[in-house]
Amino acid sequence: xxxxxxxxxxxxxxxxERLEDISDRLDRRKGAELTDREVQDFPRLYRKxxxxxxxxxxxxxxxxxxxxxxxxxxxxxxxxxxxxxxxRGKRGGAYLADLFxxxxxxxxxxxxxxxxxxxxxxxxxxxxxxxxxxxxxYSDSSLAGIVVSQEVLSMMEESYAESMSxxxxxxxxxxxxxxxxxxxISIGFISFAAGILFGLGTVYFLxxxxxxxxxxxGYVLSLGYGRNFLIFVTAHxxxxxxxxxxxxxxxxxxxxxxxxxxxxxxxxxxxxxKGELLTLVGAAxxxxxxxxxxxxxxxxxxIHYGIKLAVFxxxxxxxxxxxxxxVLRTPEEVx
Length: 335
Fold this sequence. Notes:
Layout: H1 2-28, H2 36-59, H3 63-82, H4 93-114, H5 116-139, H6 150-160, H7 170-193, H8 200-222, H9 226-259, H10 266-297, H11 305-328
Helix pairs in contact: 1-2, 1-3, 2-3, 4-10, 4-11, 5-8, 5-9, 7-8, 7-9, 7-10, 8-9, 9-10, 9-11
């Protein structure tokens, strides 16, 4: 059966890869520039791959092959019947705004649905290790030194020993915003990139980051500085943690792709998953960037805690609304 599936793949791969390439370009960029030949070939290739999928089902070829074909057909079907193919394309602010809209309300929800298991696993590893570490360190603060250096613990103690009575100036806020962007995005990117090590690298960094962050939180709380800590982290915590979880999910997807490439080699498998990987990483970057804005300009300001709590609740509500409105309640097309 594997030989039959492989021969079927070799016989038809050229047309499959051509349809996948055109679909991928159109999915990433509405109004992507296509040649006249590509515009004419797109519906023909779609019909051929649909026929190949039906034949594969009839012959009961390998599940990996049928999953791969179904993904190609589903993506092309969505574009063929919902998107307008524009040979010349568009540019400018309207194009960028439309691209961003399609990313948020079309590409990301579809990718999110296909990879919910990786998102949940990433959240479980990160938040689970965070909660465990927080509880252990809060009960015995000496345990914090196992995963956090004494220098960092001393800095945390000094930072939260006194309440914020003076806000940062604009220059300092901008500098800290830049630092948060660089620091948090680097953490997220490392978690993602480490997935190339069969997913084990991502698992390690999710656990380590969760344990480290939990230890810092537990240590600060054990010192009695919990109020000051919450006043600072409340506003930006939702977007920041969500971004790190999505980066971890991208790393787990990368690891799964390396472990189970199917009937093709690992490089080809990663290439075919690059759209989903970049979508998850892009969403993670957007969340981390948003968190950095809040952390740099709002979190350190001596304003009423109710305002920061309102930002926290708004961020949480926004994520839940997006999750249930655009991800879980929108059925993905399956041909």
